[in-house]
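[step 3/7] fold_predict: job queued, chain A
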Amino acid sequence: MSQKLKWGVLGCAGIAKRSVIPGVQQSELNEVAAIASRNEEKAKQTAADLNIPVAYGSYEALLEDPSIDVVYIPLPNHLHKEWTIRAAEAGKHILCEKPLALTESEAAEMAEAAAKAGVYLSEAFMYRYHPRYDEIKQIIDSGQIGEVRGIRSAFTFNNAGDKTNVRYRKDWGGGSIYDVGCYPINAARLLLGKEPIAVTVNAFFSPEHDDVDMMASGLIEFDGSVALTFDCAMWAASRNPLEILGTDGIIEVPSAYITPTPGSGNFFLTVRGERSEIEVPHVNAYSMQADQLARAIMNKTPLQFQPDDAINNMKVIDACLLSAREHTRVAL
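[step 4/7] structure written:
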């Protein structure tokens, strides 16, 4: 293995081209060595655009490249399981886009395949590698805001006009809960350090978009009478706030999951009526995500977030979708 890990990318998805590939290229311990597409010309054009040395006309060809250490999978959700397992069987470590799978059982199969092959499997929730989340967790754990009474969060955007988008294919794992609702769910589990006990979700399923949930609002219950209230949408104005309410204070994160510009990662702390802005460094969370995975691989140490975390997140997502479809509270 070289000083830097060599990454191969399966597919030319927008998230890969806009964010993840540049993030890996800017990281300390990684380089993007190859990209593959089922359309070879598309792979070659993307490689040229992003200064990637090698382009393949099939995913299989990239997996057969012995120089590739890590595979990044930004494919549509319904393909995550197949290509994660195939990458694992090829001996490649894997960063797979969120949500890891379509169901909890699929995620468990993927984790089992990675463990059997002796490779690392990481879910691509880049936001949690930003150092501000360690700081937020420390503030909560220190008791500065008192006992946590609740969390509110949202992740919404409007892309409804693009009817051909993969997000609007029900059989491909489309819908707002899969695409962006997974973030507030993941963040609440991270910050509270425990798993939910029940969910109740209401959703707007759009016949214009293959009956996927274009907006959903939910209540995620945790023990101790604490809950996450959240909403997510692909047909609403853009926003991604997070608020943690305590008995003595409030933490407000205006842009909780994306930090595109200097200052956008800052958050606010109010304790007993005194509000202050907490400034955090402007960093590339995608780069930090890649380096965390690389350090684990190179040092043979556990991942910061194990596949079990992704399995547990999928369990909650499964329950949210069931609740929304059946208009009922689902116990976990």
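[step 5/7] annotate
The longest strand covers residues 148-158.
The mean pLDDT is 97.
exit 0
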